[in-house]
Design brief:
α10 packs across α13. Helix content is 40%, strand content 13%. The protein is α/β, with parallel strands linked by helices. The longest helix is centred in the last third of the chain and has 24 residues. It is globular and about 65 Å long. The protein has one domain: Amidase signature (AS) enzymes, CATH 3.90.1300. The protein is built from 17 helices and eleven strands.
Length: 493
């Protein structure tokens, strides 16, 4: 076959089963693509070529024996947040230098049990803290897209920027990612890919480096809605090692792709029309509304009154949990160790040298809001707001709404090193303004490409569903995908 890396997961699966190609050939094609493009894009922090070829050889054996799994021979990239046994796992942080876990995360174990091949570990914002993939110890990831007539390097979004960029640049067939406040959906929207954050508890968090435990959730980034459905089916499971994972059957998500959406009620929340929102975001939103209406869905205006408090509440809850979770990195047991006069001095020097600027900022914010005298004023109030945000969604869904349609991001991709973003962290945090409510409420949300802006950059729309109703999101997402078409970047690397 001429260009194996152009195949979607569904197409590659068919090509492998019908012997049009082999897992070894498919894997070699991706490894060659990574070798050619990764020096420019910086999506991979570790390429596991030998392991990938060994896994592909085993897959070819199972295919020949008629024992192929659902993802047999499909080459995937794994975000550096997922523990992979014996393989670099550093959350893109200096403080975890040299860490190679002796165990496998539940999500990656599920994927490999279904036959997936690991190409390597993907770059990300350090400890998943960022919206642009510029906080990584390994340097910024470059978006495979360029604005028309410009050579400016653009961010791919974050924290799963390496996952999104590698999928968009065809450096893997699909990728694992995580979403704490939009870290799957935002980079998917900025790279013209599909990303779904499933319901909290749908995928196990065991073996995933923790950022904010009550918000973190694993999910896939893929080239189209069908591929995202295929990946989520393998990733999702109950797990006795994660008490927040939910014991309920995992549906056949792929069967929902292409299903009729006629009669579904789609809510349009008025609070998502922000002051100063670019006209191109409003235009793509209206296009999405028209796509769903033409497919037979009913469009209903709704209100989520506490949306305006979501971002400030999120940036209290998430740093507070991060402050607690990151206390374990002290140089004693694993990772970086900077010698000191005594153990306290060693702690201080190790953490000062090991954590990047943004991680330090969030640890300090989290420690502050949890400290005596401020806990009630900040953290407790933020948790109350979180309850109200969740109640807003419950009220809307109780009124018969099946899903909500909103923008995914407040703009298209911006430049790496953008001075406005660098000078004011709040401007960077505002990139999550349309996505954080979903994490605060524990709901599923999917980002689907819906058009291009005037500069030829992708814009995405977000669909928010009822708890554990990812199937409806896949059905609605496929309607938007079919109507809008699919988008690929011009090759510049």
């Amino acid at each position: 076959m001429s260009d194996l890396t152009a195949l979607t997961i569904a197409e590659a699966r068919e090509a492998l089963v019908t012997k049009q190609t082999s897992a070894a050939e498919l894997t070699d094609a991706y490894l060659a693509a990574i070798e050619a493009a990764n020096p420019q894009i910086n999506a991979y922090v570790k390429v596991t070529a030998d392991k990938a070829r060994a896994m592909a050889k085993a897959s070819d054996g199972r295919i020949a024996a008629g024992e192929a799994g659902p993802l047999e021979g499909i080459p995937l990239g794994i975000k550096d947040l997922f523990a992979t046994e014996g393989v670099h796992t550093q959350a893109a942080s200096h403080i975890l230098d040299g860490f190679e876990p002796r165990y496998e995360s539940t999500v990656t174990a599920n994927l490999f049990a279904d036959g997936a091949v690991m190409l390597g570990k993907l770059n990300m914002d350090e400890f998943a803290m960022g919206s642009s993939n510029e906080t990584s110890y390994y340097g910024a990831v470059k978006n495979p897209w360029r604005r028309k007539g410009s050579n400016l390097d653009l961010v791919p979004g974050g924290s799963s920027g390496g996952s999104a960029a590698s999928v968009a640049a065809r450096l893997c067939a699909g990728a694992t990612a995580t979403d704490t406040g939009g870290s799957i959906r935002q980079p998917a929207a900025l790279t013209g890919t599909v990303g779904i954050k499933p319901t909290y508890g749908r995928c196990s968090r065991w073996g995933i480096v923790a950022f904010a435990s009550s918000l973190d959730q694993a999910g896939p980034i893929a080239r189209d809605v069908r591929d995202a459905a295929i990946l989520l089916k393998s990733m999702a499971s109950v797990d006795p090692k994660d008490t927040t994972s939910v014991d309920r059957d995992v549906p056949d998500y792929e069967a929902a792709v292409g299903r009729s959406v006629k009669g579904l009620k789609i809510g349009i929340p008025k609070e998502y029309r922000m002051d100063g929102m670019p006209a191109e975001i409003e235009a793509v939103w209206q296009k999405g509304i028209a796509f769903l209406k033409d497919a037979g869905a009913e469009i209903v205006d709704v209100s989520l009154p506490h949306t305006k408090y979501a971002l400030p509440a999120y940036y209290i809850v998430a740093p507070a949990e991060a402050s607690s979770n990151l206390a374990r990195y002290d140089g004693v047991r694993y990772g970086l160790r900077v010698p000191g006069r005594d153990i306290a001095d060693m702690y201080e020097k190790t953490r000062a040298a090991g954590f990047g600027h943004e991680v330090k900022r969030r640890i300090m914010i989290g420690t502050y809001v949890l400290s005596a005298g401020y806990y009630d004023a900040y953290y407790l109030q933020a948790q109350k707001v979180r309850t109200l945000i969740k109640r807003d969604f419950e009220t809307v869904y109780a009124d018969g709404i099946d899903a909500l349609l909103t923008p995914a991001t407040p703009s298209a991709a911006f430049g790496i090193g953008d001075q406005d973003m660098a000078a004011d962290p709040v401007k960077m945090y505002l990139n999550d303004i349309f996505t954080v409510t979903v994490n605060m409420a524990g709901l599923p949300g999917i980002a689907v490409p819906a058009g291009l802006d005037d500069g030829g950059l992708p814009l995405g729309l977000q669909l928010i569903g009822r708890p554990f109703d990812e199937e409806t999101l896949f059905s609605l997402g496929s309607v938007i995908e079919q109507a809008a078409g699919r988008f690929s970047p011009d090759k510049w690397w």
